[in-house]
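Request: Not sure, any thoughts?
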Amino acid sequence: PTHVTHAGDGSGRLFITEQEGRIVIVKDSVLLSVPFLDIRDRVSCCGERGLLSVAFPPGYREKRYFYVNYTDKAGDTKVARYRVTKDADRADPAGEEIVLSVQQPYANHNGGQLAFGPDGYLYIGMGDGGSANDPYGNGQKMSTLLGKLLRIDVESGVRPYAVPPSNPFVGKKEVRPEIWASGLRNPWRFSFDRATGDLFIADVGQNR
């Protein structure tokens, strides 16, 4: 298991992502035998690769779609949208919509966390691309999405996504506007404080 969360739909279900590419459901303290989503045919595993997280948008009960972050067979990051079938405990793997693709130069430091913030935007943790000592300087390079925390708008109806106009680097020359924070090595997990909205990042550091 790489991530455990709920859908915010009042169902009490827990959704567990498994590294090889499945999402399973625990319902009424019982693990359902049929997975919610099975995309093992397009996920690379293992090491630090795999299906890394799932996020459900505000109003999921009515919207009936959700987002996942995984590394594809080439080892690159994919953020994708899937829809639920008529059965609330089953999603359709064939209806994948790719929201964001990011090339990964190495097998490690993929980040992988997705979460909707209190502002309704989707936050994405991206590692620096891997190896050691950030050989490409991606953490400080503002023309790449690697080594960053991203913030995008996937709920406005713009496809594949819109950039929130309040993002700090919108309009800056040679800076990707999706960037919310830079200088990260591998923001493996992060969470919003429900009382204050503050964002806490568990970043995998190196020597200092």
